[in-house]
C-alpha cells in the first residue's frame, strides 16, 4: 500500500475538522507509528511511515525538530534518561539523537529485518529492540555493543524491561511470551492462545500483553496467567501504561482505543475515534492524558478517564493564522503544513523555515536556519512552478536530502490552489 499518496491533502482535510482534539499535532505525511513522551511531559517524539520522526513541544503544540535519517518507516521512538532520543525503523537501524543536531550521534546496526519496538532500560544504560528477523537485541548506549537473544520462531513485535531491569519480556507472532534474565540463563517461555503484538510491564512487575485476537492478557512476573480483558474485535497493535500503573490504553487496527483499569480488569472508556487504525498511544506523566497517533498522520489528545477529546487551550487563546483565509481552498491544503512552517517572519520559529517572502528566494538561502547540506548545493528558486513540482514529485525526489516529511499532492487543481495561496499569504497580500 502506498501510504504517501496524496497525504498532504488528506492530512489537511482531517486537520481542518473543527471538532476539539482533531488535528492537535499535524505534520507527518503518513500514519503515526510510534509516540514517546519526555520525562517532564513537555515534549513528545513521534515516528511515522513517512520515514521521519518529529519532536514536538506540547506547550506550544508545534514541531521543534524533524529528524530525517531512516530510509523506511520509523516504527519506534524513545526518550533517553539524559534527554537524548532514539529512533528505530523498518531499515533495521537505531539512531541516537541530541536535540538540535541534524544528524544522529550514533547509529546501531545488526538486525536483518525491520525493528518494530524499542525500549530503554530503567537505569538508562541499554536499549532493547524487537525485530522481524525473529530476534531481540540488547544494545549498550555507552559503546553500541550488542547482544542477540534468539528463540522466537516468527516476527518479534514487542519488548519491555521489568521494572527493576533484571529481565526483559518479548512477544511475537509465534504466540510466545519470553522472559529473558538479563544476567544469564534460559528464558521462561509462555505459550498464549493468540499471536502477540505488544507488551508492557507495570511498576509492580505484572506483565500485560496485547494479542491478535483483540484481548489483553495479564501475567505475573514469572509468566503465570492471571486474567484477560477483551479490548476489541480487531488485533491490538499498541499498548501504553500510565506511569503509576493504574491505566492501560490499547489501540486496535480497527480504530478502537480502550482504556482499562488494570486492577479492576475492566474497560473504563472507549475513545470515539473515527474508525481508521490507531497505530500508537502514550500517556503523559499526569497519568490521565493520552496521545494517540492515527493513520491520517495526526496526533490527538484525550482525557483517559472521561474519554473526551482535549481541545487546544493555546489555540483558543491565540488567533488561527489561517483564519483570514476561511473558505480558501489553498489555505485548506496548506493547513497540514502549519505545524512546521509559518507564513510570517514575526511568528515564532517552528521546525521548518518560515515561508515569508518565499517566491523569488533560492532554496536553502534563508538566513538563520540550518538547512541540509544537500539542499545548499541545489539550483532551485522558489516560484509557483517549483513549489508545484515539489508536491507533484514529493520532497525526497525533487529535493533529495531534505528533512521535510515526504508528502505529495496528486491533484493539479489542489497544487494550483496551494501555490496561489502561498503567493498571497507569504507576500503580505490577502
Automatic annotation (TrEMBL):
Alphabetized Pfam families for the sequence: WD40
Matching CDD domains: WD40
Highest taxon of source: Bacteria
Keywords of this entry: Electron transport, Heme, Iron, Metal-binding, Transport, WD repeat
InterPro entries: Cyt_c-like_dom, Cyt_c-like_dom_sf, Cyt_c_1A/1B, WD40/YVTN_repeat-like_dom_sf, WD40_repeat_dom_sf, WD40_rpt
Keyword Electron transport listed: yes
Coiled coil: none
Annotated SMART domains: WD40
Record PROSITE patterns: CYTC, WD_REPEATS_2, WD_REPEATS_REGION
Renumbered ranges of WD repeats: 25-66, 67-97, 108-149, 149-180, 271-312
Domain Cytochrome c positions: 325-426
Entry protein name: C-type cytochrome
Protein's organism: Bradyrhizobium septentrionale
Phylogenetic placement of the source organism: Bacteria, Pseudomonadati, Pseudomonadota, Alphaproteobacteria, Hyphomicrobiales
